Amino acid sequence: MDAKDIAEELQDLVVEPENSEESKESPPEKMLTASQVNELVKRAKRKGEQKMQEQLDATRAELEQLKEQQGQQQEPQQQQQAPQGIDPAQLQQLVAQQIAQQQEETQRKQHEEQLHQEVNQVAKQYFGKMAQGTSLYDDFEAVTADFNPAEFPQLVYLANELDNTAAVIYELRKNPGKLAQLATLVKESPGIARSELSNLSQSIKRNDEAKRNLQEPQDPLNRLKPSPVGTDSGSKSVRDFKSASFLRG
């Protein structure tokens, strides 16, 4: 109930005291007593309250209608999603499947982390061994400059197991046919490829050993040979006397 509704009821009405002097001299005007005014006020309040109540009822009706519409739209989705009753065995199976999936995910992450660490370790060892190649061959950098280990990951992994990795890679790069053969073999049969790389490694070692032996200087004493001329001790033997010229006749 607001002041506007009350003002509409009292718009042209004037309330004055009953014993005023002006009332005796002027003609009587339309006047209301205090009780009538109170009644009008109450009536105006009831009218305003009724009007407000009608508005509230209309608003409630609209809200209820909206709720019903939303409920009708959501009900089919809920019916589709709602399970039609799950027995304990089925529930246990679902829980077991979920646990198994979580375990597989955990194992997969652990495997990836382990593989990542292993790859980093192999790469570190490989580049460390390759750095030694410059002290073995003068043209090592020139020969291996265009060798990309990322193009031969399996071959590099096996070559890294050897103790002369730099020499093996150097030899393979100097022989593209051998490199291509091993690159194919390592994909089809890693075991045989490992054996071939080991044979190549041992062959390089034997060749290096043979070169070192040829380059090593011999001991000067070993080159001395005994003279066929005997040494004279100063004493004469019987043969010496027989061959003396003064004893010949």
TrEMBL record:
<feature type="region of interest" description="Disordered">
    <location>
        <begin position="196"/>
        <end position="249"/>
    </location>
</feature>
<feature type="compositionally biased region" description="Low complexity">
    <location>
        <begin position="68"/>
        <end position="104"/>
    </location>
</feature>
<feature type="compositionally biased region" description="Basic and acidic residues">
    <location>
        <begin position="105"/>
        <end position="116"/>
    </location>
</feature>
<feature type="compositionally biased region" description="Basic and acidic residues">
    <location>
        <begin position="47"/>
        <end position="67"/>
    </location>
</feature>
<protein>
    <submittedName>
        <fullName>Uncharacterized protein</fullName>
    </submittedName>
</protein>
<feature type="compositionally biased region" description="Basic and acidic residues">
    <location>
        <begin position="205"/>
        <end position="214"/>
    </location>
</feature>
<feature type="region of interest" description="Disordered">
    <location>
        <begin position="1"/>
        <end position="117"/>
    </location>
</feature>
